[in-house]
Amino acid sequence: MYEAFAVAIVVFLTVGGQELLGFTMLGRPIVIGPLIGILLGDVKTGLLVGASLETIFMGIVNIGGASAAEPGLASALAVAFAIKLHGGLGVALPLAIPLGIIGLQIKTLLYVAVVGPFASRFDSLAAAGKQKQIVRLHFGLWGLQWFLYALIPFFAMLVGSGATQAVLKLIPNVIVHGLTVAGNVLPAVGMAMLMKILWDKNISVFYFLGFLIVAYFKIPLIAVAVMGFIIAILIAQRDMQVHTLEQKMSTVAAAPSTSKPVSKDEQENDAFFD
Amino acid sequence: MSKITSKLDAAEKKILRQIYWRSFTLYSAVTPAKQGASGFEYSMLPVINHFYKGHDDAKKAAMVRQMSYFNTNLAMAPFIMGVTASMEKQNAKSKDFNVESINAIKTSLMGPLAGIGDSLFWGVLRVIAAGIAVSLAESGNLLAPIIFLLLFNIPVQLVRWYGGQLGYTLGSTYIEDLYKKDLINIMTKAASIVGLMMVGAMTSSMVKFSIKWNMVLGGKTILKTQSMLDQIFIGLLPLAITLLCFYLLKKKNVSLNWLILGAIVISVGLALVGIV
């Protein structure tokens, strides 16, 4: 009972909490893992499994409301089961992936079916100038939505742990080994997601530079970040110089001909504000 | 800070502080139809109440106006709110202000700023913070989650705090200026460089895959596959796997869930036949 409460409250305060507190990243596996670990009395497992799940879910972010999984519920339950069943990533991983997908489905359902219908209510309250009711509804819907969401981990912990244990016992060792291998390969998917956001042909060499310096020189990540900043500043300075040079060139070239009333920059701005 | 807000009176400074705090809750009650409309309204209420004091009809009109579709990156939201607040102020002062321009500017800022914010804060900053925290957590450091939250949130909160002030004092002309100077593109490129280098570094430190299978002839191991691969290039297989995933995601539009499922199935399959 205590465990079910603890996990449900963690999900409510982190996954729900970050929606109230401006996506402050409270609901990431690296935060939830150790938190569950402290509450269930095994900080080390929480920390390690949380870190592994963070790398797996690294590429999964909520962009414009679209996502592929909800890592918060998945990591809370997976870490809790890993602690209860005295397993590591081998227990957590086969649970985390399906839970992440189920979590997202339920989150979407709540968002469409519970909060969604109130959109018109907000409109009519605004038209009537009822500020207090708007504020109350704004926070009330938050509480309702995440209370309902937190019921899932509560009941999953209450009824699920015996069943999960029975099922996990049936899995042969070689498959558990395969799942551990999968856990080490899956960060590749997360990295690929991030590359999709950041990749650009002109700067793609820096990806390989980052890989090389860690593979061969074993440089810690913080040093890589600082090196990246130095390179980025140098390149930004060069880009600024090129840009001012280009502007000078274009003003010199455009000066004799007064027949061109719209410069390229103005055209771009027009398109932007259309 | 004193530089940015030096020309504002006490009430305006208070409004900007309220925008900063209230905009935390932007996505508390997200609806499919209007996304963060109620959060935007909640953040703008101090602005509306201040500038339309005593004009009930204008106040209601402003409330309806601000309860409109809003969706952007959270770190960028206060900046847009600042710009919107400065336009509401102008609207309250002058009679011939074009009211429609308020939502037009607001909408035109949402898209580009969401793009910059998502790649800057989600793509780069969060990845750096998580990468550092994960390596700390793996060595058993309990401060890992706290360091993660601080590394991510300190820059984000600074952008949120000063963004609102900048948006309000500089108004809608500012963003035009940024585009004119091409600053946004240069900044996005610089940030992407840091991000890509980090992703490359993390590919090396986090993606692990090694082959156990060796070529055996007459009871003698004649080829140690993994050490041979390491001699060619350390981390060749993890790099190849990551690039393959990237290729499938970007060029073949394979969905993320299929990719995850595929990675699990193939790993288990390779374990069954004893290759890994």
TrEMBL record, chain A:
GO terms for cellular component: plasma membrane. It is found in: Cell membrane. Its main location: membrane. It is a multi-pass membrane protein. The keyword 4Fe-4S does not apply. Keywords: Cell membrane, Membrane, Phosphotransferase system, Sugar transport, Transmembrane, Transmembrane helix, Transport. The chain crosses the membrane at residues 27-49, 56-83, 95-118, 139-162, 174-194, 206-236. It holds the Pfam family EII-Sor. The keyword Methyltransferase does not apply. One of its GO terms (biological process) is phosphoenolpyruvate-dependent sugar phosphotransferase system. This is PTS system sorbose-specific iic component. It comes from Schleiferilactobacillus perolens DSM 12744.
UniProtKB/TrEMBL annotation, chain B:
One of its GO terms (cellular component) is plasma membrane. Coiled coil: none annotated. The keyword DNA repair does not apply. The chain crosses the membrane at residues 69-87, 142-163, 183-207, 228-249, 255-275. Keywords: Membrane, Transmembrane, Transmembrane helix. InterPro entries: GatZ_KbaZ_carbometab, PTS_IID_man. One of its GO terms (biological process) is phosphoenolpyruvate-dependent sugar phosphotransferase system. PANTHER family: N-ACETYLGALACTOSAMINE PERMEASE II COMPONENT-RELATED (PTHR32502), TRANSPORT PROTEIN, PTS SYSTEM (PTHR32502:SF23). This is PTS system mannose fructose sorbose family IIDsubunit. It comes from Schleiferilactobacillus perolens DSM 12744.
